[in-house]
Write a structure and sequence with these properties.
The complex is a heterodimer of chains A (333) and B (512). With 333 residues, chain A is α/β, with parallel strands linked by helices. Chain A has helices spanning 4-24, 51-64, 117-121, 146-150, 166-177, 186-189, 192-201, 205-210, 228-243, 301-309, 316-332, and strands at 33-35, 39-46, 67-75, 82-91, 99-110, 131-135, 155-158, 182-185, 216-221, 250-254, 262-267, 270-279, 282-287, 290-295. In chain A, strands 1, 2, 3, 4, 5, 6, 7 and 8 form an eight-stranded mixed β-sheet that branches. In chain A, strands 10-9-11-12-13-14 form a six-stranded mixed β-sheet, covered by helices on one side. The longest helix of chain A is centred in the N-terminal third of the chain and has 21 residues, at 4-24. An eight-stranded mixed β-sheet of chain B has the order 8-12-13-7-14-15-16-17, sandwiched between helices. A six-stranded parallel β-sheet of chain B has the order 3-2-1-4-5-6, with helices on both faces. In chain B, strand 16 and strand 17 (422-430) form a beta hairpin. In chain B, helix 1 crosses helix 2 (69-83). Classes of the chains: A alpha/beta (333), B alpha/beta (512). The interface between A and B is medium-sized, with 41 and 29 residues.
Amino acid sequence: MVRPETILKELSKLWVDLGHEDQQDSVAASSGVLRACAMTFITIADESEDPTNLGETVAMLMKEHPSRSVLIRLRPSGEELIESRVFAQCWMPFGQHRQICCEQIEITASLASLDDVPGVVLPLAVPDLPVILWSRSPRLFDLPAFPKIAAMCDKLILDTGAFTYGVHAFDLLSAQLKGERLVADLAWSRITRWRETVSQVFVNQECIDALPTFTRVVVEYGTEKPKPEAMYLAAWLQNCLQSVGSTTHVDLVKSEGSTIEAITLSVGGTCDVSIRAVGEGAVEVTANRLSTKTFFSEPTDYLALLEELSITRRDPAFDAAVPVAREYAWQIQ
Amino acid sequence: MVNLMAGENPFHDPLRFERKVPECAVVIFGANGDLTKRKLMPALYRLAFERRLSPGFAVIGISRTAMSDDQFREKMRESVQKFLEDSPFDENVWTSFAQGLFYMAGNVDDAKCYSDLKTCLEGVEKQRRTGGNVLFYLSTQPSQYGPTATGLGSVGLNKGDGWRRLVVEKPFGHDLASSRELSTTLHKVFVEEDLYRIDHYLGKETVQNILALRFGNGIFEPLWNRRYINHVQITAAESIGVEGRGAYYQEAGALRDMIQNHLLQVMATVTMEPSATFQPNTVRDERAKLLRSVRVMRHDEVAKYAVAGQYGPARLGGENVPGFRQEQGVDPQSQTDTYAAGTFFIDNWRWAKVPIYIRSGKRLPKRVTEISIQFNEAPHAVFGGNGLAEMAVPNLLTLRIQPEEGVSLKFLSKRPGTGMTLRPVSMDFNYGSSFGERSPSAYETLLLDAITGDATLYTRQDMVEASWAVVEPILEVWQNSRFNFPNYASGSWGPAASDVMLAQHGHVWRKP
């Protein structure tokens, strides 16, 4: 059995050891170790997930969002089990002489012991700082212990893209959004560059004034069925068009290629604005027959989380997009 | 659904992405100079790297040297690679950015330069679709500011299809009269709203963070007044000498070069009243109001409240370093201040009788810029009876601007052990470790602001005049004095007279 006091003691010892190590190191002796923390970041993942990949993502995030990180690995076992270990993640910022270190706690818990996890994790949260929970495992949401676990956090991050059924994911998300807690979906964060590009096309007044004249707006997707990203994009476009008085419906159309292949806004079949993926991260933007190319970074979990961890309040565009995306999911089902 | 204002971009999401900057051409006068190479071009490249610039963006460099567009591009590429800080150089980004760089040889004293520029701008506007928006950047000798602005006006370049703005680097005059004269000349061509007087100190993240610390938190403002604050010290120290800028520096001096502009603006940021909103003119109104409240010294007070210094030669780190008078291009009898310190008072209810000490100097022990706010001591020394009275140090809030940006609070704590012994400890917030993100350079921030038309961090003419009014009596007295220079050794914290200036109020300079 794991006791939070023991973990906290180990953490305390870790800092003392780091301080001693640093004093013995002649190069860094005068500079010291700097402890940084802006949040408690809890990650829940299935034990089968590659811990190296996950560890790298969390470590990369530490540099911009220093935190006390708690990784909970779910073991699909009926036996009661909770184990823990603590370690520090340190790095030396470019051009500086002082290491910055953050704490990491790894807890392995069997499904049978999941109910006991909040009791262990809650005392580990850094006081007065936000607690963020990133659930990588879709099945967590269906477990009886989920409400108790979710109650620990100020912001819940999930990924509807990881769910098998879109409708189920959006139902779950809608239920979560009814509460006070902040909720985020990495599938929504992954379309930020698409949304930004649309916004940049409509930066001048002439284009904004022309918005109600677009009679056909299409989001093309290349997967067998549209993924949540495509549904979000269509939902967001729908909401934005409505806000300027347009009644045009945004269509989701199957095409070839990636999760999102293109966005087109046209008048009577003539395409006026098109934003189209052309391979290897490149996106071609055409507006009024003028074309430019831009590049989107690969939409990794790291980038999506980086964005989400920076947002500490409700996102009205996301809140408005979820129910519309849910409707798309129902129609496609 | 969100209700939008008419004409608002419904797709913009301020929570997730930055507003796109408008297309424009930046015309840099003095494009072959140090500022362009070291600061402006790296900042513009970095904005391109961050995808903050519009595809319709162009730079036209102007200087006297004959050069082709390609030669200019190559020169700028070398500069960006050499002077880019905390950022990688990306070949693809550069290739795309360099396509928007153009060069025109011209002499700003020659009327032909402006008609040539007009033709050049028309071509660039067509090629790059810059929408008629032009930002003129004067990175030239200050004496050329007036003639250049007049030249632009003579061919109608101050007006066009898009907006036209003029960025001017400091110094804005060399005294109050010349500052007004310059302003009158500029106003004949550009209205005040289109004039952007750059003070790069205000673009520094940590200077902006002073506003966040003061007005974004509830705990500091109630203490931010004469009742709790004993005095304020503002230090801008440099460890280097004039480094080849002797000829320029000889004419300027520390008071003009640092205190009149940068440090008085920092002081205004630390002491101004909160503005009702964070809009360009509301913030600048408060800064200007504060600067107008600074008590102007009488000539007979200058000796008491201001100290001039000049560094002499010394042996530092096993190396002989020259004194100011031994520097290249400097008069061996120079009376220029390489160190200046002053005691300033702000005549308003919040700050009455609180001394604000400002010092700036070259060849001081280290490069550091910081503001320290010393609070009054605890009213009753509870622990004094234990022979610990000498430990009763006041609380100190230090705002570090450079090199390690951050905030620290010094307070007393009990030392571990059975006795009641107190020891000062420091609670540190380090900007770099709390936000791993790279901070934009001051020039990135300020250039972007000028392009988007946000003048919050730019100095307005009334602020410039108020600062000149503060330092002018000191300048006048110093000009008519004969100092026994050098009066401090390189590597020391300045002349002894500076310590005496604080001692008369029972204070001592901090050693940052």
